[in-house]
Each structure stands twice: as structure tokens, then as C-alpha cells.
Amino acid sequence: MSNLDRQAALSVCGGRGFVVADPVRELLNPRRVRLGESTEVRRLLPNLGRRMVGAWCFVDHYGPDDIAGEPGMQVPPHPHMGLQTVSWLHQGEVLHRDSTGSLRTIRPGELGLMTSGRAISHSEESPKSRARFLHGAQLWVALPDAHRHAEPHFQHHAELPRVTASGLTATVILGEFAGARSPGSVYTPIVGADLALTRGTGTAVPLEPDFEYAVLSMSGETRVDGVPVLPGSMLYLGCGRGELPLRAESDAALMLLGGEPFEEELIMWWNFIGRSHEEIAQAREDWMSSARFGRVEGYDGGRLPAPELPPVTLKPR
């Protein structure tokens, strides 16, 4: 999924200066962003004062949206560099196409994982034959320097490992959780898990004390370490926890996101992650000149033009 902001801001991310070493309860409210004609997303990362959670650097939550008679998701071909995209659905379908030739329909509970490496482009759209409702999350993972110039590729995993306990089913989307490991490729210590809780469930899930964590509420009413977290909001938890208490006031679903704090300092602009302003500017030029990022075949429409770069030069610090 793309950042469709027409005046995209440069963001300095990464580095341990943003990491909270102790347990905290920091509620992050979303910024509402239009995505195409009929989809509105709630952007949780990057957020004012909070840029990353481990290697997770971008989180959008959308829906549930009734798209009967509507175009649904329509995101034209656009580029990515230096990151992975994670597509996760609770309802509906998304048709993914990319410049490596991948063509795949992603459905609820399936992992769509695109590793951009040095350069890739892709489109996302609601299929013509589709479910009435669309509900999901789109997330990005920053690639460390050793892997950010790798060959681009796409992975689709229809079956993912699950961990169950009384009133809880956890699907391991990325990384490792409670001894179960996702088949998706990862390049830093990280975890992403979908937690489904039945009404009245009180439980505690295991965490890695050296990781920093956040929880995104997808649906229902949940208390996370005693804090009410409503759908479309996210609670940042910091580091230093061995477990996380959860209480479901209704049937509910959460996304647990975490990872080892990302030490490298980054610049994120539009759909690119780099290490310098010059690198970002070159990527924009390459996209606008049709070089490097390849071509998405089969999408009915034109490519998404890049916004203008802001008249400032930023460096990681």
C-alpha cells in the first residue's frame, strides 16, 4: 500500500533515542488519510513523537468499510525502496500485482509479504468479484542496511501457525511468538501476531523483555494492561515486559507488534526508506523517469506520480 499524501513529509526514524527502555502505556491516536476514492485509513505510524516500534515503521488500519457498489481499494502502481510491506486482512480481498510479475489475491488470515529491496513497484485493488466488507491493516518493516539492496520478491502464505489458549487464538504473522514461527522472511528480530479474544477472556501473553511493543486494536473492546484500547487506536508499551495482561470486554481482535529496537537511523519519505536526502531524491527521480522500479502489468490505469520533495535537506541524527 502507498502513502498517498500529496505533500509527503520527510521523517527521521530509527536510532535508540526514540526508544522507551521501560514499560509505558502511551496511547497513539490515528491521523485520518484518504486512500483513493472510497477508502479512508487511520494512520498510527509514523505518529507525532513515535516513529517506529522495532523495525515496524508504518501502520495503517482501515475498515470495516461497506464497499458494495463502491470501487473499494484502488491504489495505482507506485514504488517502494528499503522496506517490506505486510498486508493483513480481517474481511475482504485485495488483488496484488508487482513488477516482479507476482499476481495474487490476498484473503483474510493470509500473509502478503513484499520485500522491496533496492526497488519494486506494485498496485493494490479490490477484485471485481469481492466480499461486501473490507477491513484490514497495512504495515511496513524497515530493512537493515545489510539487506536493503537485495533483489525484490513477494511471498504469499495462506497457512500460518497458531497458538491457542483459553479464549485466545494467536496467529503468527511475522517473526516468532510463544514458540511458533511465521514462514515469512524477516531481517531483524521482530514479531507480528493477530490476537483473537472471546468476550470475558482475561489472559496474559508472553513478551520478550528486550523488545519494544505496541498493540493495535482491530475490533471489539479490550483492556491492554488495564488501558481501554478502541478499534483504530494503538497503545505503545515500551520495553522491559515479560508478559502483557489482556482483558476482552467483547469479542475482540488485536495486532501485537514488536521487535528489537532498530538502531540504524533512517529517512522515510513517501514510499521510500533511505539513509540520506540524496538517496531519497535519486529514488524519486528514478521513479518519475520510469527507471529502476520496473513495470506493473495488468493494472487498468496509470502510475501514481511522486509528490514534490520539500525544500529542505534532512540527515539522520
Automatic annotation (TrEMBL):
Domain of life of the native organism: Bacteria
Stretches assigned to the Pirin C-terminal domain: 193-289
InterPro entries: Pirin, Pirin_C_dom, Pirin_N_dom, RmlC-like_jellyroll, RmlC_Cupin_sf
Domain spans labelled Pirin N-terminal: 41-141
Xref: PANTHER family: PIRIN, PIRIN-RELATED
Stated family: Belongs to the pirin family.
Record's protein name: Pirin
Organism of this sequence: Streptomyces spongiicola
